[in-house]
Here is the input.
Amino acid sequence: MSSPIYVAIDTPDLQKAIQLASAVRYHVGGLKLGLEFFCANGHHGVLEMMKFGLPIFLDLKLHDIPNTVAKAIQALHLLQPTILTVHAAGGRAMLEDAKAAANSGAKVVAVTVLTSLDGNDLNDVGVMFPPHTQVERLTHLAREAGLDGIVCSGHEVAAARKLWPDGFFVVPGVRPINGKKGDQKRAVTPRDALNNGASIIIIGRPITQAADPDLAARAIEATL
Here is the structure.
């Protein structure tokens, strides 16, 4: 069984990304490439990272009108990502079109509430529900739209899995018990995330900014 850890390669520097992936390739289950990496390196960068033979999680969090999101996803077909993200807040039609446009083997998952947000942040943008309630509402929407799963924090994943027993649950903002939270407001430990129902967990800085990324990845893997 492969590791549930996907390492977040959040750097615009392709050579640094290659070095990180090379260091941790045997102790992670996949590579998550986000906006920072993709904006700097595009298709070429992703193709280079595919050479490691690990699943690619293309975390672009697409959010636009349905047609634009569908066309963007079609433009990614060459990269054959294992997992793609869109924002659940884009609405039912956008979610349906996103799934229809994806490669047959790709999981399309909907971002519910970013782990950098709390209740006050949601209120600021007009969402009067606490994060937990909002995640549940968007979980229902993603399931009804035919997606494969959602992205949520470890605080909500247990409730989301109860609503969607066979869903695919991505939990970012994961921090080791002694790790710095940084800009993550709703972080949990790797073990807690899996216990609560995560399918995969996303870990970035605790691995990528460690003096020895491979040692850090192995230490986290050992807690699982």
Remarks:
- The first helix runs from residue 14 to 24.
- The chain has a mean pLDDT of 93.
- Strands lie at 5-8, 30-34, 56-62, 83-87, 107-111, 149-151, 168-171, 200-203.
- The CA atoms of residues 119 and 130 lie 5 Å apart.
